[in-house]
Specification:
Helices cover about 40% and strands about 15% of the residues. By secondary structure, the chain is α+β, with helices and mostly antiparallel strands. The strands form 3 sheets. A 5-stranded antiparallel beta sheet has the order 1-2-3-5-4, sandwiched between helices. Strands 6-8-9 form a 3-stranded antiparallel beta sheet. The longest helix is centred in the C-terminal third of the chain and has 22 residues.
Length: about 300
């Protein structure tokens, strides 16, 4: 569990020299491999390529410190059942040399981050995404569900309402409030919990030659309501492709409504974080919010 003191602590300074020392000390078998920073990395992790076949990922913050252990525990069990490539954990590094969190070494996955321009209108891509989620949801349930519960819409209520008020001058506040309250009131899933990715959006999808090839970043992996993964329909897909995705996934009205709620709340959170510093991310999240409102 992440403590309040850890959340308040300044983020660690992670440069290539530190990553080199951590790798060399904990995994001397890779000391001769070249180490190259990946720029841009991720909002949650600093990423380096280690030789031609490996990636090193170090959490930037305490709230994602458990991802290395979670992926190491669960991805090898889930991967054989999934139709798209996922990270293959190779090793988990431990805190050291002043760096405070566990960190991961995984197989390098070729590809580039999916974009709306490349695959947003692709019905093939929409079916690929639906097929991945169907396969993930069909995987055998975990015996030990500790650390897999995930966040609920209700737990995001206060923060979402504050964000709606804060950005009432940018987006349609009455429409956002109406959608949010409808999503909170939507009937819960009736058929039991299933696996969900938890952060299923454009930044965590890779493409090769215009085709979705891999899904990455399983830090939000959990077992519960899969509506959270419907955010991909609003972050990536055009309205026609979104309809194909919904049909292929077989999503009922209540789950779709909760998914729109997830797209709204995560979009507002990202907009709040990046509106002042990254026009590109602000535009992307504004699109997400408006897509969620449109349905």
């Amino acid at each position: 569990m992440t403590t309040a003191d850890e959340l308040a602590s300044p983020p660690p300074v992670i440069d290539t020299a530190l990553v080199r020392r951590l790798v060399d000390r904990q995994f001397p078998q890779w000391a001769a491999l070249p180490l190259t920073p990946v720029d841009p990395g991720g909002s949650d992790h600093v990423i380096h390529r280690l030789g031609p076949d490996l990636a090193v990922r170090l959490p930037r913050r305490a709230d994602v410190r458990g991802q290395a252990d979670k992926e190491s525990a669960w991805l090898p069990r889930l991967a054989p059942h999934l139709p798209l490539a996922v990270p293959v954990p190779v090793a988990v590094g431990r805190p050291g040399l002043g760096y405070p969190f566990p960190w991961a070494v995984a197989r390098w996955l070729d590809g580039r981050t999916a974009t709306v321009e490349e695959v947003g209108g692709s019905t093939r891509g929409a079916r690929q995404l639906a097929g991945f989620l169907r396969a993930l949801q069909s995987a055998a349930p975990p015996v030990d569900r500790s650390g897999l519960s995930g966040e609920t819409l209700g737990e995001r209520d206060a923060g979402t309402r504050r964000a709606i008020a804060r950005f009432a001058h940018v987006f349609d506040a009455p429409a956002m409030t109406q959608l949010w309250e409808a999503a909170l009131a939507a009937p819960p899933r009736a058929t039991g919990p299933v696996w969900f990715h938890g952060d299923f959006h454009t930044g965590n999808l890779l493409t090769v030659d215009g085709r979705i090839s891999a899904v990455i970043d399983f830090g939000g992996l959990g077992f519960g309501d899969p509506a959270v993964d419907l955010m991909v329909a609003f972050t990536l897909l055009s309205p026609p492709a979104r309809a194909v995705f919904r049909t292929a996934l077989g999503t009922d009205d209540a789950t779709w409504l909760r998914g729109r709620g997830w797209a709204l709340t995560t979009g507002l959170s990202a907009y709040a974080a990046y509106a002042g510093s990254s026009p590109a991310i602000a535009a992307q999240t504004a699109r997400q919010i408006r897509a969620a409102l449109a349905g």
